[in-house]
Write a structure and sequence with these properties.
Elements: E1 2-11, H1 15-26, E2 34-36, E3 41-47, E4 52-58, H2 64-71, E5 76-84, H3 87-96, E6 108-109, E7 115-119, E8 129-133
Parallel strand pairs: 1-4, 5-8
Antiparallel strand pairs: 1-5, 2-3, 3-4, 6-7, 7-8
Bound molecules: cobalt (II) ion.
Cobalt (II) ion binds next to strand 1 and strand 5.
C-alpha cells in the first residue's frame, strides 16, 4: 500500500526567510517557489535524496495555511506525505477499515500533477497524512 516517504511539510510565515535560514545554517538548498492558487499556498522543496522537506506559506489571507499560522505564528510541521502506488485502491481499502479520507470524492492533484488525498488526523495518531500517488515507472 505505502511505498515510501514523500515529504514532511512545514508551514512558515516567510518562504524567503525560511530558505535563507536553511541555506545559511544547514547548507540545505531550497528549490524554486511554486504557487498552488487553488489551495492558496506558495511551495518550495528541499531535496534530500530519498525524501523532501516541503515549505508552505500562505499566498492569500483566507488560505487554510494562514489559519495554521494564526494558531502557530512561528510555523511548524503541518503534514507527513506518504507515497502510494494506486490512490484509488489505497483510499478504498482505508475507507473500508474506517479511515476518513478528507474532502469529497473528486480527485485532487498537487502542483506536480500527482494525485493526492488527505487522511483525517484522528485516524493517524493525531498527524495529518497526505497520500501522493507515484507510479513505480513514472518517476524521473
Ligand atoms: Co504535501
Amino acid at each position: 500500500m505505502f511505498t515510501g516517504l514523500s515529504h514532511v511539510s512545514i508551514v512558515v510565515p516567510d518562504l524567503d526567510a525560511a530558505a535563507r535560514r536553511l541555506r545559511e545554517t544547514y547548507g540545505l538548498r531550497v528549490g524554486e517557489t511554486r504557487t498552488n492558487a487553488e489551495q492558496g499556498v506558495h511551495l518550495a522543496y528541499v531535496e534530500l535524496g530519498n525524501a523532501r522537506i516541503e515549505l508552505m506559506a500562505p499566498s492569500r489571507p483566507d488560505s487554510p495555511v494562514a489559519k495554521f499560522l494564526e494558531r502557530n505564528p512561528k510555523g511548524g510541521i503541518h503534514h507527513v506525505s506518504l507515497n502510494v502506488e494506486d490512490m484509488q485502491a489505497t483510499t478504498g481499502a482505508l475507507s473500508e477499515v474506517g479511515v476518513r479520507v478528507l474532502g469529497d470524492s473528486r480527485p485532487r492533484y498537487n502542483v506536480a500533477g500527482e494525485r493526492i488525498a488527505f487522511l483525517h488526523p484522528a485516524d493517524f495518531l493525531g498527524a495529518l497524512v497526505e497520500l501522493e500517488e507515484h507510479h513505480a515507472k513514472g518517476r524521473p
